[in-house]
Amino acid sequence: MTATTTRELVGIDERRLLRRLDDLAQRGALPRGGIYRPLYSPAWSSAMDLVTAWMKEAGLLTRRDAVGNVWGRIEGSRGGRVIATGSHIDTVRGGGALDGALGVVAGIEAVSSLWQRFGRSTRILECVAICEEEGSRFDTNFWGARAIADRLEPGEADRVRDADGVTLAEAMRAVELDPTTAASAVRRDLDSFIELHVEQGPVLEDHGPRLGVVTTIAGTAHLEVTVRGQPDHAGAMAMDRRRDAFLGAAAMALAIADAAVRMGHPAVATVGTMAVEPSQVNVVPGLARFTVDTRHPDPARRSELITQIGDASKRIASERGLSLEIRTLRDRPPVTLSPRVTDVLRRAALAAGVEPREMTSGAGHDAQVLTAAANTAMLFVPSIGGRSHCPEEATAAEDVVLGTRVLATALRDLAYQA
Amino acid sequence: MTATTTRELVGIDERRLLRRLDDLAQRGALPRGGIYRPLYSPAWSSAMDLVTAWMKEAGLLTRRDAVGNVWGRIEGSRGGRVIATGSHIDTVRGGGALDGALGVVAGIEAVSSLWQRFGRSTRILECVAICEEEGSRFDTNFWGARAIADRLEPGEADRVRDADGVTLAEAMRAVELDPTTAASAVRRDLDSFIELHVEQGPVLEDHGPRLGVVTTIAGTAHLEVTVRGQPDHAGAMAMDRRRDAFLGAAAMALAIADAAVRMGHPAVATVGTMAVEPSQVNVVPGLARFTVDTRHPDPARRSELITQIGDASKRIASERGLSLEIRTLRDRPPVTLSPRVTDVLRRAALAAGVEPREMTSGAGHDAQVLTAAANTAMLFVPSIGGRSHCPEEATAAEDVVLGTRVLATALRDLAYQA
């Protein structure tokens, strides 16, 4: 039998783990709270330098790939395909200390501890700090994982720009990366990938236990809805003669949220942006444009939700004499993770005395992209208050330690087979 | 008896009137339709030059006052207090050809026709192109009428800026006006002021007749409502755990409009602007901020409406676990116009065979400010489709002519008394 039968949880340097999370949170810390580490920025470079130093300190072989993902490696005694772990180093603007960062720091800690305790693995074992996942700077996302999984689009680095008009290619050159070699970041030698992440929702905190394994990552659809009515004088045009585009959009937003509520958990639908024109205090809005983010891990239910959103919007537009245009900005199908690697995670959790909850992830993760390159699994630890993408994002220290020990245990079971 | 008993409608040069309206609409015409003549801009100067030339062509004594209002005058044989007419030359961005412009062009036509047909008046008779009413460029409005009515605020020209940061004082100097002399634009010698204006609403078109006299101008309240909830991950945070600030704001906007609908015409309430934060497709809005414009000509009903708006917003915030802040940006009480001068207008309309509708104006007008300086009245002609502040703003040519002839008749009755 392989090492997967081992019931003992791997030990780690708990104080080092927690201290490093604090240290990383200083890179890109904003004066008024929260963190911002946009791709290829000085804060990002500083964070990458820090995690690279940690990998070197543990004696791992480090390498920065063509898009800036940083890998730390233990050469396995038998070679073959690679066992890997990690997450992303970038953050949303005003984000927290754990989204991405936990998986990076815990991955380094797990691989470093295994190296220090058990020496050379039989399989090749790597940890990775992925350069970008959040769309933190450019009008794209999953840049790092897509480079690994051979999912970059032709000409993407020259086409995509940040808010200042800087292209991704220009930003790469500024940190001494050569955009023409981006394709060489592809990894075709991965066997398994495990990502430890905070849940970013309230399920584990509300219902327990302290660990979750992700079976499916919800498919995200982003829609852009444009409602056109008639701009009129806010003082002179009678209420019953108006075709107010914003009131239509407001009714649609309430109906869209209601559709997700009626479908029940884990269906979600969010109107995150809203713009009106002409946007003057004394003019009835003639146009309203908003986005919808909607997700469900079951492809059939997801389609049903998108249909309900469209139908409700059409009904409201018709009732109010408004015209309607719905454009799909993004449509990512749900992704199923690897049952085999998930089972390794489950057994590692059992070694800690926890029967992990099987969960779907509403949030997108590097793991969903890396399913194209490796047998992929995800481990969740609770988020306090379910909060994420905000300065309040937090997880109890004991849960951070537990998750990291379970991750290390799963990696041992995969990489230290006899 | 005075000339007010005359039953004959004064004749005007109808073709000249309509041609001039077309000519003025070229000044500030936008390439894609609509007009924009912001205060002290090149388009504004060009329009002012045009109307000044028309006044001179009629032989009127012309004068540009300290803020740029242009006056054309017939010296009355008996002197005394002045009879005046006019409206504003500026427009909203993408506005139409009649809001303000009709009162300017018709005022010049009426005074010019009276001078040409009846010679010197007994009372002093003036027409005026008022420099600004719309808030067309600066974060202020009624600049021209307030200068006439001694309602400028100390230091206002140095304090108020346009979107590019240019102060009103700097903009004045650019068109060779001296901001330090603005106070000299005050007129303390006015007796009566009549403003002809398009209705900007659908009442006359829907219910007739072709003329309206304004008894009251509705008081405008502008509120700024800030709703605070909790920003969360749009994929990971369960629907029933959210405190979505935008959904609260959407429910408030619908309730606010409903409050005006339930109170009935002429109550109006409009949410014209809406901003959410962080305004990302995949983040639940933590903050929503919107404006409310609400009006009613009856002070008690107006207060009731503002109370209802506040109460509905508070109830919704409480139901949804949101915090609420309501700030009053502007609070102008309703203004009652002069029954005496309105009666002169009514009799002039009767001379045209029209019993005018007594109306309240939901829109604000120079006339409401000039009540502080003169006995003031307003005459409305129909707006096709009730449309205004848009390129489609229009009035039938025969109604433009009718309104101008009735204006000229009323001015004759006031200024040519035996």
Query: In CATH, what is the homologous superfamily of the largest domain in chain A?
Result: Zn peptidases
Q: How far is it from the N-terminal to the C-terminal residue of chain A, by CA?
A: 8 Å
Shape of chain A: globular
* Structural class designation of chain A: alpha/beta
> What CATH architecture of the largest domain in chain A do you see?
3-Layer(aba) Sandwich
The H/E string of chain A reads: HHEEEHEHHHEHEEEHEEEHEEHEHEH
Average pLDDT number of chain A: 95
Helix content of chain A: 25-40%
Q: What is the top-level CATH class of the largest domain in chain A?
A: Alpha Beta
Number of strands of chain A: 15
Q: Give the amount of beta strand of chain A, in percent.
A: 15-25%
Helical segment count of chain A = 12
- The parts of chain A where pLDDT drops under 50 for at least 5 residues are 1-6
CA-based gyration radius of chain A: 23 Å
Largest sheet of chain A: 9 strands, mixed
Here the CATH topology of the largest domain in chain A equals: Aminopeptidase
List the domain count of chain A as a whole number: 2
Quick structural gist:
Two copies of one chain form a homodimer. With 418 residues, the first copy, chain A, is of the alpha/beta class. Chain A is 35% helix and 23% strand.
